[in-house]
Amino acid sequence: xxxxxxxEQHKKPGVYYAVTDDGLELPVVDITHxxxxxxxxxxxxxxxxxxxxxxxxxxxxLPSWVRRVMLRFFMRGSRIGRGLRRADGHFLDGxxxxxxxxxxxxxxxxxVPVDRRILMSLPAVSVRLRLTDxxxxxxDGLAPRLARDASRPLHFINIAGGPAIxxxxxxxxxxxxxxxxxxxxxxxxxxxxxDRHGPAFGARALQALQAPGAPLAGLDITFEHxxxxxxxxxxxxxxxxxxxxxGAQLAVSSEGGLFEYGSDDDILANLHALxxxxxDDVFVVGSVTRDDELIQTLKLTSTAATKPRGLTVFAALVAxxxxxxxxxxxxxxxxxxxxxxxx
Length: 343
Fold this sequence. Notes:
By secondary structure, the protein is an alpha/beta fold. The chain has two domains: about 15-125, no CATH class; about 125-340, 3-Layer(aba) Sandwich (Rossmann fold), CATH 3.40.50. The protein has helices at about 40-60, 65-75, 80-85, 95-100, 115-120, 120-145, 165-175, 180-185, 195-210, 235-245, 260, 265-275, 295-300, 310-320, and strands at about 15-20, 25, 155-160, 185-190, 220-225, 250-255, 285-290, 325-330, 335-340. Strand 8 (about 325-330) and strand 9 (about 335-340) form a beta hairpin. The N and C termini lie far apart (about 50 Å).
């Protein structure tokens, strides 16, 4: 790991910190802490949406070479900007996505003014809301299941999870609202991701959250990274085998991952594999890119490889693999969904 560079920032009480592979110290996002609260009133959402649509339409009218020059100029020195450029025609890496989740007030001295402006935009606010929705859906799905058996192991499978901050925040929510449900069980957070940097940070984030006096202190939690390409589901088998051997409750998630970037065949293959795993009571939470005016306008200038399906198309797709949507939460750029096997 590179030498640790501690960001010059006022450290908030009750906020914990972890270090990236390149030595940057970042806050660990905890949606139960006021510093990371994500809320969007109807009035504020309308204002952000109107501003975003106007800005994107005007930007789209410029020649593409002018747009590229402008972006390079305005994002010079920006850590987030570098991540956005790497995502051109691809997907945003786990650690850049993580920076989106910090919010503008939690950035340190490594940030430049444009970083804060980016994090105040509608897409960045949507990512923060997406994390909150993911953790809430996972926690609500797990609470009644865990209440039925106080000692059954709990396994998280996080597909394209980066630092798996949605899984960790699910544990934070459960610890605050259903503390007894976690006390006597072994918990495994298993990240299936082709990149090592996000999971490495996630492991350090968990260590920080388990320090004496920290929110997850005293819990029996292990964090594992498995290299994974969702186009080849073979690597799911040993993870599911381990869950079956332990009789574990399984919570699968993919935030900003499989359901947003994967092909129809990729999604079907992964959902079929999860059903064939012979694990009792599995459910899946994920985010689905919307197919509406906002997304269509964003696509005028963005080259991100998301696949805008919308809920109707997505529901028909997952039904082919024997799953159905039992809950969904609508946000400006994505819907967060909870899937359960169709009986």
